[in-house]
């Protein structure tokens, strides 16, 4: 039995320190909800989670970009639907003006409406979306993935129909305008069909990115997020060990005092 060196106390102190550190680490995980509180907890996992976080941000930015392009394309189609309605009415007016029973004053009324509709189409041709011309001569390029390797070019369509103002005097004069309107109507409907294809491609890409973002988020969670049920059990275990270690250290410190009985 010795007094100067209390091996029991040293062992109890070391074990208590280990239990205390484990308890603090468990408490930090429960408080933050993360398994990786400090880099030394999982250095490789921390690096992987950081890369996945960066990818999630890129995916989110790409999703926003595609959503904006979808809105851009929907706006184009919305305006073209109005152009189509105007052209359909203009086509109807050319037929009405071709009626030989109509007087010159009747034809003049048709001319006024026809030219007003033409001016409406001309005004639509200059419309913009956030400062970008909706009907530019060239198509816009869109990136469909976060690494900007998959590029898609929107349908290019310049709304510049060669419609001349009506100057009909007789029913026969409307025939020339009818040919122009039918050509323009065919062009508009064909481009609306192409815009429908663009929207289909964009929506599929947006859905694909949503699924990918979910999977990347799940992967990040598996690396970083703490299992609360499992960690709670560990916390309870370390808490008991700390209490037991504290009690045993107190007992170890009392043992050398028994040596005094040999001196009495």
What general form does the structure show? rod-shaped
CATH superfamily of the largest domain: f41 fragment of flagellin, N-terminal domain
Q: Classify the helix fraction into a percent range.
A: over 70%
At CATH level 3, the topology of the largest domain is: f41 fragment of flagellin, N-terminal domain
Number of domains: 2
Please describe the biggest sheet, giving its number of strands, its sense, and whether it closes into a barrel: 2 strands, antiparallel
Number of strands: 4
Q: Helices and strands: which structural class?
A: mainly alpha
Count up the helices: 6
Poorly predicted spans: none
Gyration radius, in Å: 39 Å
From N to C, what is the helix and strand string? HHHEEEEHHH
- Strand proportion, as a percent range, falls in under 5%
Alpha carbon gap, first and last residue: 15 Å
Question: Averaging pLDDT over every residue, what do you get?
Answer: 86
The CATH architecture assignment of the largest domain turns out to be: Up-down Bundle
Strand order within the widest sheet? 1-2
Walk me through the structure.
- There is one protein chain.
- The protein has 264 residues and is mainly alpha-helical.
- The chain folds into 2 domains: 7-33 and 227-263; 44-224, f41 fragment of flagellin, N-terminal domain.
- The protein has 6 helices and 4 strands.
- The protein has helices at 7-32, 43-97, 104-124, 174-224, 228-254, 259-263, and strands at residues 128-129, 132-133, 141-143, 151-153.
- The strands form 2 sheets. A two-stranded antiparallel ribbon has the order 1-2.
- Helix 1 packs antiparallel against helix 5 (228-254) and helix 2 packs antiparallel against helix 4 (174-224).
- It is rod-shaped and about 140 Å long.
- It starts with 6 loop residues before the first helix and ends with a helix.
């Amino acid at each position: 039995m010795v007094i100067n060196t209390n091996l029991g106390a040293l062992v109890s102190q070391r074990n208590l320190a280990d239990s205390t550190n484990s308890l603090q680490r468990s408490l930090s995980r429960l408080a933050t909800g993360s398994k990786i509180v400090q880099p030394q907890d999982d250095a490789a996992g921390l690096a992987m989670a950081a890369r996945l976080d960066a990818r999630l941000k890129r995916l989110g930015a790409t999703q926003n970009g595609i959503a904006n392009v979808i809105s851009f394309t929907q706006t184009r189609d919305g305006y073209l639907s109005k152009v189509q309605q105007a052209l359909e009415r203009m086509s109807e007016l050319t037929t009405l003006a071709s009626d030989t029973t109509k007087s010159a004053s009747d034809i003049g009324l048709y001319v006024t409406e026809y030219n007003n509709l033409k001016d409406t189409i001309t005004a639509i041709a200059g419309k913009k979306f956030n400062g970008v011309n909706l009907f530019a001569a060239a198509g816009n390029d869109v990136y469909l993935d976060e690494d900007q390797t998959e590029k898609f070019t929107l349908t290019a369509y310049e709304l510049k129909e060669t419609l001349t103002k009506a100057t009909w005097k007789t029913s026969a004069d409307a025939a020339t305008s009818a040919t122009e309107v039918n050509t323009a109507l065919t062009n508009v409907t064909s481009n609306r069909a192409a815009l429908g294809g663009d929207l289909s491609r964009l929506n599929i890409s947006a859905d694909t990115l949503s699924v990918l973002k979910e999977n990347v988020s799940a992967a990040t969670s598996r690396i970083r997020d703490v299992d609360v049920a499992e960690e709670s059990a560990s916390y309870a275990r370390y808490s008991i060990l700390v209490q037991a270690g504290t009690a045993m250290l107190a007992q170890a410190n009392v043992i050398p005092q028994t040596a005094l009985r040999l001196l009495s």
